[in-house]
């Protein structure tokens, strides 16, 4: 089970830190990621992190502003979001990939477990 939290209503330029708590499985050995879905749009990749060494990937739209991290010991993942923009407004989902991939995936289909989502709203 994955539980995302930390969303809220902020102004452009502000920061938020999302958390994803994993329980019930060996999520510490799964690659994990963040996706987001804005109204009327497809769910899109935001960032992902490899369980083995913390190697990360980012969507071009958030590179340099967002930072993903995780603590395998307590199965928790974070997304630090700085310099938020109105176009970052979306429901953010955390996800876990149980396959032992060497490269963390960016495709939705690669992820097996999903959290319920947390709303992030950025006003201009």
What does this structure look like?
- This protein is an all-beta fold and 124 residues long.
- Helices cover 0% and strands 48% of the residues.
- The strands form 2 sheets. Strands 2, 4, 5, 6, 9, 10 and 11 form a 7-stranded mixed beta sheet that branches. Strands 1-3-8-7 form a 4-stranded antiparallel beta sheet, with no helix packed on it.
- A hairpin with a 6-residue loop joins strand 5 and strand 6 (56-58).
How many E strands? 11
Please trace the helix and strand order, writing H or E for each element.
EEEEEEEEEEE
Low-pLDDT stretches are none
Give the DSSP E fraction (strand runs of 2 or more residues): over 45%
CA-CA gap between termini: 34 Å
Number of helices: 0
Structural class: mainly beta
Fraction of helical residues: under 10%
What composes the largest sheet? 7 strands, mixed
Give the C-alpha Rg.
Answer: 13 Å
Mean pLDDT: 94
Basic shape:
globular
Blueprint of the fold:
Layout: E1 2-5, E2 8-11, E3 16-22, E4 31-37, E5 44-49, E6 56-58, E7 66-71, E8 76-81, E9 90-97, E10 113-114, E11 118-123
Parallel strand pairs: 2-11
Antiparallel strand pairs: 1-3, 3-8, 4-5, 4-9, 5-6, 7-8, 9-10, 9-11
